[in-house]
Amino acid sequence: MAETSYSLQYIERDSPLHRAYPLVKLGWVFLVAAGLFLYREPLSGAIMLLLVLLTAVGVARVPPSMVIRSSKLIFGVGILLMFFHFFADPGEPVYHVGPLTITDGGLYEGPIFFFRLSVVVLASFVLIWTTDIRDLMVSLTKAGIPYRYAFAVFLALRFLPLVQREVDAVKAAHAIRGRANRSSLVHRFKLWQRYMFTVLINGLRKAEATATAIECRGFGAYPDRTYVKTVTFHASSLWLPLLFILVTAALLYFERLL
Question: What is the number of other CB atoms lying within 10 angstroms of the CB of residue 42?
């Protein structure tokens, strides 16, 4: 697949991470999330962020430009959460920003929450970038999940890039007509209301068309379903979770020493 400006879609590459079994990569995301909630030092979260970035760019061969384009989605909410904890957490006052006070406890806890959220989002993006959603659906059915539920996961991931394209198309149309990038904040807020309404209506249309197509094909009429493409588990795929288990154990060990 050619490199594109859309970040929420599969990037076809020949890399060890692309060849890993989809459920192994899904388990890896949960493993990373569990480790981040166990860490009590910001340095551990920073090390995990660096390791996931190296995994994405170095191992999965995801273009750095794709990571940069996705940085607003990956780090945006995490940054807001960090600043919230700067002011909300109890502790000794350190800085005053108008009527608000930044505490030493907030300066310590804020980065921890930033890494917790941002690294999990980044790991989820790596899963999307390196996993064909059809392979994920087949592997879920092999794990015993009814194919109706596996197909629901497939549809959810399949609609993500479609919704992103829809948002970009609506934004471009508004920008051409009214120079939205140069408008006031109040006008931009009204534009976002229009974006959401347009995207919602178009999404409902796509959902209705998809439901009609599924019904016409008799989806769900039989207890089992066959697949043209098979997905085979290989023990070599376990290198990814084993590596991060070792890193997590090492970080927790050094945190206890400190």
Answer: 18
